[in-house]
C-alpha cells in the first residue's frame, strides 16, 4: 500500500486496538474499522521472512509482485522529468510548516521570559 493509505491504516489500527481492549468488538465502530482495515489489505500479497528469537521478531526480508517500490523511479541517474534540484524545492515546501511552528514557539518563549 502507498504511504498515505498506510498512515491512515496505522491510525485506524490504534483505534481498533483501543476498542478491542475495552471490550467493544461487537460495536458498530469496531465493525466499521474491521471493514476499513480489511479493505486496505485486499491488494497486499507477498512473502515476508522472519526470525523469531526469545520473544523478538526480526524481519529478514520481504518481496511482493505488487510492490510499489520501483528502483528506476527513485534513482536520479535514470532519464526522466526528475532533476536533483527538484529535491531542494520539495524539502523547502515540506519544511514550511516546521518553520512556522518554530516561529510561533519562539514567540511563546519570548512572552514567557518577559
From TrEMBL:
Assigned EC number: 6.3.4.5
GO biological process, one term: urea cycle
Domain Arginosuccinate synthase C-terminal stretches: 1-101
Enzyme class, first EC level, given as a word: ligase
Gene3D superfamilies: Argininosuccinate synthetase, chain A, domain 2 (3.90.1260.10), Single helix bin (1.20.5.470)
Cross-referenced InterPro entries: Arginosuc_syn_C (IPR048268), Arginosuc_synth (IPR001518), AS_cat/multimer_dom_body (IPR024074)
Gene Ontology molecular function, alphabetical: argininosuccinate synthase activity; ATP binding
Cellular component GO terms, alphabetical: cytoplasm
Pathway: Amino-acid biosynthesis; L-arginine biosynthesis; L-arginine from L-ornithine and carbamoyl phosphate: step 2/3
Key words, A-Z: Amino-acid biosynthesis, Arginine biosynthesis, ATP-binding, Ligase, Nucleotide-binding
Pfam family of the protein (one): Arginosuc_syn_C
Record-given protein name: argininosuccinate synthase
Lineage summary: Eukaryota, Metazoa, Chordata, Craniata, Vertebrata
